[in-house]
UniProtKB/TrEMBL annotation:
Transmembrane segments: none annotated. One of its GO terms (cellular component) is cytoplasm. SUPFAM superfamilies: POZ domain. This is BTB/POZ protein. InterPro entries: BACK, BTB/POZ_dom, BTB_POZ_domain_cont_9, SKP1/BTB/POZ_sf. It holds the Pfam family BTB. The lineage of its organism: Eukaryota, Fungi, Fungi incertae sedis, Mucoromycota, Glomeromycotina. PROSITE patterns: BTB. It comes from the Eukaryota. Residues 26-93 form the BTB domain.
Amino acid sequence: MSQITTKLLVRFSNDFAQLLESKYDYNVIVKVGQKSFKLHLLVLYQRSSFFRQELTTATKKNNIIEITLTDITVEAFKILIKYIYTGTILLEGDKESTIFDLLVPSSKLGLAELIEYIQSYLIDNKASWLKLKFAKVYSTSFQDNNFKALQIFCTDILAKHPNIILASDEFTSIQKNALINLLKRDDYKLKNQKFWDKVIQWRKEQTPDLPYDLKQWTEKNFLDLKNYT
């Protein structure tokens, strides 16, 4: 790409950043938590498959469309809406948790290319943090089929360090499909007594009325555990 082309793209991106900031002639209000964002239909429609679907069926009131987003923080949406407008994102300097927490809302908004970029950035630059938060990362990777790169990363880590997930305090909060994937693994180093103790703890978290003492479990309790997973 020539320097002239690069300068033109930078100018183009900056112009849309100014449009986002100025809110000029906005016709969409997106509510996230207690904050409202004044945005532009054409930009949202073209850049996000989620917004494209929402805008197609939305009803205008006084020539304004209102959309309420749940399961996304204001902080994350600020980053993502800037990306939607400008096509740029700067992850350097952001906390690892902030970057990681962009994945799920990026998927919700249909930003496939950004999901790939964030996964690559985390794997290439923040691998130590991913290992530190392994149970959370592993669970999230199976939450969405778009997170294949993280799934592969986690699978490779488990092959080399099978007990890494057992050392995590977040084991009991992992997604059911992530646990099922663990159970399907042909890994005898992983499936030791500690592993099965963790699985039982996980099931207790899902069913708080289960007796804490395993000696009080009935045969049905154990069968339910087997069938649930």
